[in-house]
Design a protein that fits this description.
By secondary structure, the chain is of the alpha/beta class. The chain has one domain: LmbE-like (Rossmann fold). It contains eight helices and seven strands, in the order E-H-E-H-E-H-E-H-E-H-H-E-H-H-E. Strands 3-2-1-4-5-7-6 form a seven-stranded mixed β-sheet, sandwiched between helices. The two termini are about 25 Å apart.
Length: about 230
């Protein structure tokens, strides 16, 4: 039987941006990888003041289809994608039911490794995902290897995360956050990761005539040949 790995993504694309390399690597190593998408990403354009062409419900379906294509490139089958379909931006309001779903998934799959957002992320859904996953892990009767990943931190941690050289950044962050930092070489899978990221065109380009800028800014720090994780246990 293959060892299980689960990646928790607050929104469609978080899994590929932060963990695309490790997902492809673990699949290549023979692991069974599943991704749990907690919210549907419908309000990404609403946050920019765009409510039509596409509507939030239309964007929800666009992003789900992008997710299917991106994760297929990484090597995942659709059967390994779990969509909880909570509304983007309102995860806090569904904490009880989401906690129950997370617990059901972890008890069923008993993953060897778990990946989820770092607790200092600025986005409310990312912070809520971190809190709920940690809460459920603490209630399990076994301890999986748990790793927190970085998408976008709040100030001042976002500044420290970009300090060069990386060894200095690691030293600062490990002292501040009391975490061991793990670097995973994904150089063999970087092209696959890049191709998967590019499937998220709704986030990379302006898809509405009412949209002034893309949802995402620069992707440079997601193109690197290693991914960095904060070891929770």
């Amino acid at each position: 039987m293959k060892d299980n790995i689960i990646v928790f993504a607050p929104h469609p694309d978080d899994e590929t941006l932060a963990c695309g390399g490790i997902i492809a690597k673990r699949l290549n190593d023979g692991y069974d990888v599943s991704i749990v998408f907690l919210t549907d990403g419908r309000n990404a354009l609403s946050d920019l003041g765009v409510f039509s062409q596409p509507t939030p419900l239309e964007l929800k379906e666009i992003r789900k289809e992008e997710t299917r294509r991106a994760t297929k490139i990484l090597g995942l089958s659709e059967g390994n994608l779990i969509f909880l379909d909570m509304e983007d931006g309102r995860l806090e309001e569904c904490e009880e039911i989401v906690s129950e779903k997370i617990a059901e998934i972890l008890k069923e799959k008993r993953p060897k490794e778990i990946y989820f957002p770092q607790r200092k992320e600025y986005n409310v859904d990312h912070k809520t995902t971190n809190r709920l996953v940690r809460k459920v892990i603490s209630q399990l009767h076994y301890r999986p290897h748990a790793y927190e990943y970085l998408i976008a931190w709040s100030i001042p941690f976002n500044v420290f995360a970009r300090v060069q050289p990386k060894c200095l950044s690691d030293l600062i962050l490990s002292k501040l956050l009391h975490f061991d930092i793990v670097h995973v070489d994904i150089s063999k899978f970087i092209d696959v990761k890049k191709a998967a990221i590019m499937e998220y065109q709704s986030q990379l380009k302006r898809i509405s005539s009412k949209q002034k800028k893309p949802v995402m800014g620069t992707l440079q720090h997601f193109w690197e040949y290693e991914e960095r994780f904060f070891a929770f246990w």
